[in-house]
Amino acid sequence: KAGVTQTPRYLIKTRGQQVTLSCSPISGHRSVSWYQQTPGQGLQFLFEYFSETQRNKGNFPGRFSGRQFSNSRSEMNVSTLELGDSALYLCASTPRAGGSDEQYFGPGTRLTVT
Amino acid sequence: GDSVTQMEGPVTLSEEAFLTINCTYTATGYPSLFWYVQYPGEGLQLLLKATKADDKGSNKGFEATYRKETTSFHLEKGSVQVSDSAVYFCALGEDNYGQNFVFGPGTRLSVLP
How far is A108 from chain B (nearest CA, A)? Predict the structure, then answer.
């Protein structure tokens, strides 16, 4: 069974631009969570989607948004990029929402904002 | 809310040394506990897990026991290798309507030959 895939793997954007990141979960997994990882803040939860609905949201500004499609693939969007948005963005999937199941992570998208 | 605390790194050990990385948690219910490992340039990989009190998770020589009385899930390995150099994250997962998965800050381990 294929693992979680994320595209693109690396991205360089300029301050003020917007970016869209994509995540394809493991087949059969319906829940997708997004995390931001930085050296200073560690792993921070962005949001979780299940059955095309945002189930939980972390403490991030409205510039960060996401969505999930009927095939469980998910995208996250960051508008008006700031230098501080440079980070590794990780996506994780689980079979169900609201559970204590292990999360399966993708390799991440490394975003650099200049 | 739920939280996870783990020892600050970096931890530097010589090859074949004994490893302990402490992890304690705060939770409202009965969470499952996990250790994840992240190698440079990669995502997180599950190392081991335990779903109830007194369970022991083990994998690749690493072990951790779910201690409800001390709310701890310390990671141990009897003899580390250079290839174990990575960042280790303790995490908990709980059925609730908030954020159901919480990670600790991570502990960087460097093993020297």
Answer: 6
Q: Which two tokens stand for residue A11?
A: 């991205």
Minimal-distance CA residue of chain B relative to A89: B43
The closest alpha carbon to B98, from B4, B28, B45, belongs to B28
Tell me which of B99, B102, B107, B108 to substitute to probe the interface with A (most A C-beta atoms closer than 10 Å): B99
Q: Which of B43, B95, B102 is nearest residue A108 as measured by Cβ atoms?
A: B43
Please tell me the distance from the alpha carbon of residue B17 to that of residue A63, in angstroms, as a whole number: 46
Q: Three-class SS of residue A85? A: helix
Q: Kindly report the CA angle at A59 between B88 and B74, in degrees rounded to 5? A: 25
pLDDT digits (tens, 9 = 90+) for A21-80: 999 999 999 999 999 999 888 899 999 999 999 988 889 999 999 999 999 999 999 999
Distance CA B110, CA B113 (A): 10
β-pairing, B107-112 vs B11-14, is parallel
CB–CB contact B44 A102 (8 Å): no
Q: How far apart are CA B1 and CA A38, in angstroms?
A: 22
Q: How many beta carbons lie within 10 A of that of residue A108, not counting itself?
A: 24
Angle subtended at Cα B98 by Cα A91 and Cα B9, rounded to the nearest 5 degrees: 60
The pair of structure tokens assigned to A74 is 């998910």
